[in-house]
Design a protein that fits this description.
The chain is mainly alpha-helical and 213 residues long. 40% of the residues lie in helices and 7% in strands. It has one domain. The strands form 2 sheets. A two-stranded antiparallel sheet has the order 1-2. The chain has a two-stranded antiparallel sheet with strand order 3-4.
Amino acid sequence: MTTTNNEYPATSDRSRGWLRYLYRKATTPDNWDRNGQPHAHWDGTTGEPMLSWHRFDLIESSYAMALMADTTPAWREVYSTILDELAARYTSYWAAKDWLDQLGPDPRRDHYPEGWYKLIPSHLRGAYDVPGWTANGVAPWGVQMDPVGAEGNLFFKGWFLVILGLYRYVSGDDKWNQPFAMIRDGEQTFTWSHSQIATHLAAQWSRRPEGCH
């Protein structure tokens, strides 16, 4: 960020380049449902084994929008459009693909890249999932295909609330507080709203002060 000679707040050339790129990226049509595929410009490889999911590109693309909107509020329509597109993708199958596909213990426990074993207690090598394996279905909860309603998967709904909150803050629009469909995979379709997710997560914490996981 920078200021002009008139001392009015303005964005830097670098910030505007990033904004231009992110706007193009967010408004390029693609399909994040189960039978679709995110566009190649969404990063789903960086940060293995924990962050190599397209969802993290949505999350990390959202942070600058509120900061830039505070600096140049006249451009809020642009910032709001980007955040709305990020939120829409977060409702899809691909956003929760790790939770929906990683059922039970990781069958690769004995075959991780050597560097991953540094993330696991040495005495549990080969008998412990690497951080990033969500293990939907393990005891005591069983398989829970709703990534928001599940007893675990705290990080998924927490980061979703960040994006929804930033959209509400920047746009002033209560759009995402109306019921919307999550996952949209036949019977695996779940209905939530912004406030319902926040209330559900708060209730989970109040029942288990040690943590939802």
